[in-house]
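Reading a protein record of the kind used here takes only a little practice. Think of the row as the fold of the chain written in a discrete alphabet. A record is reproduced here so that you can trace the correspondence yourselves:
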Amino acid sequence: MRYAERLEKLATLMRVHGIENFLITRGPNLLYFAGIDGPAALVVSLKLERPVLFVPPLSLHAAEEYAYSGLEINNTGTNARFEVVVAETLSSLDGTLAVDDIDIDTYRLYSTLLREREIRQGSSVIWELREVKDEEEIQAIRRACEVADRAMRAAYEVLYPGITENEVKAEVLAEIHRSGGERPAFDVIVASGPRSALPHGPLQRGGMRDRALARGDVVLIDLGAVVEGYHSDITRTFALGKVGEEFETAYRYVLAAKEAAEQYIKPDTHCSYPDSVARRKLEEARLDQHFMHSLGHGVGLEIHEQPRMSPTSSEVLAANMVVTCEPGVYIKGKWGVRLEDTVLVTERGAERLTTFSLHDYEIDV
């Protein structure tokens, strides 16, 4: 990955925003700039010859093996608290300090250790870089999408009455690993029957930890894979035999909403606009009231990133952003329909990176 180029761009943005020093501790940001996700801390300073990666002893060998070679690696040892060692270096560097994202307790600790220093939230600066993907990132996401497509195919091929949701999930997980994925991008959702109306799937509680599929069920499957740290995301909804005209209508409108919205996933479009297009299409069938989440989100080193495609988003799409497009309709006590793809924003418009069929949803059983 292009770590030197990314760090150079970060330094440029630091100058633009009046930031002399930057402390990076979040795992995805460490992966982006240093090639290792921690536990670690990266100090980027306009006053240092090169960035310093602080690692505790248990991360030292991994840092020596995988971290960007242009970093100075500092083993913090076991005799002092990790944050104290980092703060000692920061205390010697004058000027404003920005942090990518730290919890309140860690913020208070650094505020105490670095008295009279201005500590600023710098996550927006990081996102200026991470939102738009470079070619290597896009290729990694493409491979993650290929793995996700194969995992969805594996799930589709075992859908029959009598199999349980968790058995389907097991097939998905096995295929992700067989196909070269590092891990699932999130906890795989396999939700059948009335449970498919729960957007995030059922809770695994008590006697409802699992459910056997039955003829006439709707089955919603949401999965993703990770390749080289980069994520993919895909959802398909299937019917085990005939479900009924109400479901058929909902499926057609969700698909139409998705296709309509994708026409506007292109550079210079406000992120709220594709969301509004999808809602207007669903409104034609009075289904918009059952669409209870935003249209999509960015995808990359995290499964949910900037930008957000929601009714309240003020962001603007740009070429080489990667987002999801996932309209859904959920009828409590009956079924849910969600169709989702990982989409690359190109100068020509939206390119679907996940490609499993959106039309072969009815399974003959």
About this structure: The chain has two domains: 3-130, 135-363. The radius of gyration is 23 Å. Residues 3-130 form a domain with the Creatine Amidinohydrolase; Chain A, domain 1 fold (CATH 3.40.350.10).
